[in-house]
């Protein structure tokens, strides 16, 4: 194993060691020390990840112009049969290396930021141990060589997300949100598990690359085992859609998105790390990992993913326009942006002319991580200063939070895809690939882009403008050096990462690809984005009742969107009214009367029987002696008769 | 001198045994019951001695067993009397009919 191999192994191991150390011994450290241990370990990991990424992209990854898969190490962990074995290992290929960079960098920023943000919090060391656990599991997820290894890490990130959402465990709403996130994603993972089992039983392997190879060779016997169809989709498409359900649960696609807005109950840096930049894109990553199967053998499943993505993007953007809790606006914005990545995968295909969508999706994943983490961390700084999540409490904060103001503006421009910020390049790539493949999805994406600009700048103006800044506003940022550093670094990232020629590094088949930027195709989206910003400026730049007037005009639609189109209520209706009443209650009745009744009646019979035979034990020694004597005589008689 | 046949001795010991059993089952006084147990044990002793003497005159196993039984009987009587004294203290009687609490 060369130095790159050792580094990539350390990337996984270091956060795990830091988790074990902090979880076991964190209580005996001073809180500051445990924070420093967590932060230092992730900083080292980040450096290693950059080292490995540099090595992969510029030294050993590229063979004759194609990026190849490089398996650093792999060992047989559970060996059941020849075909069925669960391996653990580390694979380096363009998407996993990119994910390593994103995860470690964002995680390092969040660790650093939390040093200030969580300062003085009770259970500080526990917070850092959870963060390390999350980093470990997420890094393990992206380098998985085996679909089952991925599933294990998939559940681990789910568990650490649960722990971190419920970090303020004295708050009932946080507990409820943690449970909701856990139950919804577990429900989705059931689909994932069934999908894994079907996929592996068809392909006779659990290894990612064996599965991909076997299921993409036309006319192979493995493909033939997926015979049959159901409602017009082939068995393989259904299998892949089941796998996608797992991804949709993690990535909060409609209708499994309901947990993500509630997950904002967790500490804000956690929302930035887990519920914006890394964990929620695991679903996109999963589809990207299996992309060859989707695009070659089941394009119809990919199309469905595209439509689900497009619908979710629009749907979440509409809700985001009406929310007043700033973190919830960001949560819906996250759902919408992840949906962009999903439909970019959905419109992509196999082959040089259609592969653009895949690269665009990964590119957006990459840039989105920077500016969305920045938005969340900026929102965290605002919440830290104001002490509330509600927009109504804010306004005119540009004087008291200058650094946050500038960095937040950069992030808003980036997410609204204004050139030359990072989001512009990636969203442009997504839209141009959608335009070629599917006009309907293209227009949805275009319109959603305008909405995105509107709700982001609504947020921006509402927080930093709207009211006149207080004359004697004191600077909130003097003592939060760590927060400032991470905000500035992420802002630099949001400014610059768009210029990376992403297509040269990441593509579905490893070949270099040019992401074209035509002047003709960028005019329309940028104009729409500017219109969105202008609308937000008109309504929210100065304190006025213009927005209330507009709301009053569209009261019904606004109310629906404000109540999130009643999806939560539908879920409650289905679970409480239908499932509990029609399924839960009969089962409870069977349990109480038939199952419990059987058990209770055996107990009752035993009691009655013992009541009957109880008088035999009279307590009279002489009665016992008679029985004893009788027994002895009978035995004697038997013996004598036998021997006689 | 003509030797007594073994059957005579066995008849005596059987009679003694059943007298003891009868006493154990029929008497109500605990001390009498204890005495009946002594009769049963002694009938066994007689059997041991008789078989030893008539069947294996050159061995002493039966005699040893008898010695054991006498020792154990003495210990048993002392325990039995102690129990009876405790019973008397508790129930003020040594009638077995009145000591029926030893049940469920």
In short:
The complex is a heterodimer of chains A (644) and B (104). Chain A is mainly alpha-helical and 644 residues long.
Word description of this protein:
The complex is a heterodimer of chains A (644) and B (104). By secondary structure, chain A is mainly alpha-helical. Chain A contains 26 helices and six strands. The radius of gyration of chain A is 30 Å and the shape is globular. The mean pLDDT of chain B is 89. Classes of the chains: A mainly alpha (644), B mainly alpha (104). The A-B interface holds A 614, 617-622, 625-626, 629 and B 21, 24-25, 96-97, 99-104.
Give the helix/strand layout:
The complex is a heterodimer of chains A (644) and B (104).
Chain A lengths: L2 H23 L5 H30 L1 E2 L2 E2 L2 E10 L5 E8 L1 H24 L6 H19 L4 H19 L6 H32 L4 H9 L4 H4 L4 E2 L2 E2 H16 L8 H4 L5 H10 L4 H8 L1 H7 L1 H22 L5 H22 L8 H31 L15 H14 L6 H16 L1 H26 L16 H16 L5 H4 L13 H22 L5 H8 L1 H8 L4 H47 L7 H23 L1
Antiparallel strand pairs in A: 1-2, 3-4, 5-6
Chain B lengths: L5 H21 L3 H26 L5 H31 L13
Helix pairs in contact in B: 1-2, 2-3
Tags for this entry?
A: 644 residues, mainly alpha, 26 helices, 6 strands, 4% strand, B: mainly alpha, 3 helices
| Class by alpha and beta content of chain A | mainly alpha
User: What percentage of the residues of chain A does DSSP assign to strands (E)?
Assistant: under 5%
Our count of helices of chain A gives: 26
User: Could you tell me the strand content of chain B as a percent range?
Assistant: under 5%
Largest sheet of chain B: none
